[in-house]
Each structure stands twice: as C-alpha cells, then as structure tokens.
Sequence to fold (348 residues):
Amino acid sequence: MNPFRFERAYDAPAAVAALAGAPNGAFLGGGTNLVDLMKLGVATPDVLVDVSRLPYDRIEPLPNGGVRIGAAVRNSDLAADLTIRARYPVLAQALLAGASGQLRNLATTGGNLLQRTRCVYFQDISKPCNKREPGTGCPARTGYHRNLAILGASEACIATHPSDMAVAMIALDAVVRVHGPSGERTIPLAGFHRLPGDAPQRDTVLEHGELITAIDLPPLAFATRSLYRKVRDRASYAFALVSVAAAIDVAGGEIQDVRLALGGVAHTPWRATRAEAALRGAPAMEDEFRRAADAELADAQPLRDNAFKVPLVRSVVVRTLLDLLVDDRLQVDDRLQADTRLPGEEQR
Ligand SMILES: Cc1cc2nc3c(=O)[nH]c(=O)nc-3n(C[C@H](O)[C@H](O)[C@H](O)COP(=O)(O)OP(=O)(O)OC[C@H]3O[C@@H](n4cnc5c(N)ncnc54)[C@H](O)[C@@H]3O)c2cc1C
Ligand code: SF4
Fold:
C-alpha cells in the first residue's frame, strides 16, 4: 500500500477544506471499499480524510413527511431503523441483501453510494481497464463479463454499479445532499451516477472535494408495500446478478402508480422509467408486468455471456410485482425479520 496522510474531520467545512488542497486525496467512510482498493493498488490517495465521525449519523423526519438519512449512518443502523422498516421496507431489504453483518456495521450511507464496480479487470492492476486507466481498453468486452451491464453500456466500459442500497433509493426518488468547496447543493439520485460514455473513469457527477452529507427520501405512501428481490450466484455475501426494487399502488385492479428500479444491469442503479410508464393506468395483471419489463429491456445489448440477464430481469420484475399484489403485510415483515440476523449468521 502506498504511504498516505490520515486526518480526521469533525465538521463538513473542515472536511472539505482538508481535501481542497489535496487533488489526490479522498474521504474515508467505513473504509470497506476504499481500503480494499488501496490494498490492491487500484486507489492510491496520498491523503485520507476520515468523515465517519462527522455529525451526520442520524435518521430524522423532514417537514414534508420524508426522511433525512445522514451520510455517516451505518448500513446496519439504517436497515434496523423502525421508520425505514415501516415506511420504506424496500430500502431495509436492499441493505440486508448486501455484504455481511460485519461489513454493514462499518459501511456508511455516503460510502455505499460511491463504492466502485466489482469488474474483475478494474480490480486487477496488471490488466488494462478504461475505468482505472483511461485509454487502455476494456478487456471485459471479450473476456469475463457474465456479471456486467446489458443496459446503457458503451464501447469504453460495460461495468455495473454494485450497490443494492442505491437501487432501492433510486426507486424512492432519493436526493443526495452535498457540501463542497463552492457551497451546498442537492442532486437527485437519478442524475447522480453517470453512464460510462467515453469517460468511464467518472462514476458520478460529484466534483473532487464534494462531501455527501445526507440523503433525503421524499414521502411515498405506497412505499409501505415495497419489495427488493436480488438474484445472485450464492444465497448471501455476493453482489447482484440482477435485482429489482418495486413499489406499487393498485386500486380497483388498476395500477395507480408504481416505482421500479433494477440493479446489476448498468453502470448506474437503473430506474425503469419505460416499464413504469407502461404500467401506470394498466390492469394489475401478469401479462402487463411482462409487457412492461419487455419495454424496459427493448434496448438491452447483452454480450456473449450475460444474455441470461434479459429473461432473468423479465422474470424477476414479474415475480416481484406479483408478490406485491398479495396483500399480505405479514409476509413482508417475516422476510425482514428473517434477514435481520446476527453478524456471521447469514453465511450458513
Ligand atoms: C466482501 C464484500 C461484499 C460486499 N457485498 C455487497 C453487496 O452484496 N451489496 C452491496 O451493495 N455492497 C456490498 N459490499 C460493499 C459495501 O456495501 C461497501 O463497501 C460499503 O457500502 C462502502 O461504504 P464505506 O462507508 O465503507 O465506504 P468507503 O470504503 O469508506 O468509501 C467508498 C467511497 O466513498 C467515498 N466516500 C465515503 N464517504 C463519503 C462522503 N460522505 N462523501 C463523499 N465521498 C465519500 C470514499 O472516498 C470512497 O471513494 C460488499 C463489500 C465487501 C468487502
Ligand atoms: S468494463 Fe469498465 S471497469 Fe471493466 S474492464 Fe471494461 S472499462 Fe474496466
């Protein structure tokens, strides 16, 4: 690991000032991704500014009926929060589907949004990779890409975003609050992560030195009936091949409103806006769910070894929406409880 200077910030202006003069510095949340990348030689910051002790460790109600989640809130605490579990169960489920109990105890909300792709070439400094070293090429295109993107990819990069939490948050219309050298700003999560285009080295629209301070969730009454379903190679401790975050509002057999987002399919958490548009006003029936999934997948560009994701997305979207039609809140609560295991228990 390269030598680096460690600093700890106790308020946002101090954290931002500490990075302003360090073009190759980085903020440190729980360190569960950044420190791994430093050990691999993928990230080589010369200054680390620890922001995990900033006073952003609370989950608070907002005057508009929404909820503000501080950037330093640990993933375990967010998943266990009673307000989140009752009002946005899809978010609690997504968090509990990710990583392990020990990792979730350390991982922060801000760091989770900014974790980097698990493309094997990105993590191996002996291999070329446009995201790690722009202009060197993308060996994943012809190499190992089973877990990579089918939507929104480019010639330069076909990586997927790995966060489960972000998929639920984008379905909930989350807004990212940022404090930077030029002051504060808010960024809708839908515009926060970037598609790769010809600059895959940039995962998000954040500028250097901008600190995430919180994520706001707007109120969404029908999110009380929401689900996160994740398909992966093994039952736990694995990233999504495909995941779906969904909430649906049905009255008289007709879909009044719906939220749908996909994980494991693109460089960003993917809001399924085409499927949502197809579903609003349609009868809440399996055929309509399948048609909506197909509308979303119309532009999919699978590669040799990830074409299985196309039918998998369709099936998981249909299954998840059908499950939401079953008006059985107990089932959802049971699933949450089954997922709230002690650290280590989920690796059985
Ligand atoms: C074995 C393993 C399995 C995993 N499985 C899953 C999984 O299945 N699903 C899943 O979603 N995740 C999974 N993860 C990833 C895990 O969720 C992330 O590593 C974690 O959420 C990152 O949070 P952190 O606070 O530790 O971030 P850090 O590692 O501290 O930071 C990550 C990035 O965010 C930046 N950063 C941190 N905080 C801020 C801030 N406030 N403002 C601006 N920038 C900031 C850092 O500079 C860095 O670039 C897994 C991780 C491991 C190691
Ligand atoms: S898919 Fe992206 S991250 Fe993976 S090798 Fe290609 S450029 Fe690098």
Notes: Residues 328-348 have pLDDT under 50 and may be disordered. The longest strand covers residues 242-251. The pocket of flavin-adenine dinucleotide (ligand 1) is lined by residues 26-34, 36, 51, 71, 75, 98-99, 103, 106-108, 110-112, 114-115, 162-165, 211-212, 239 (CB under 6 Å). The chain is about 30% helix and 20% strand.
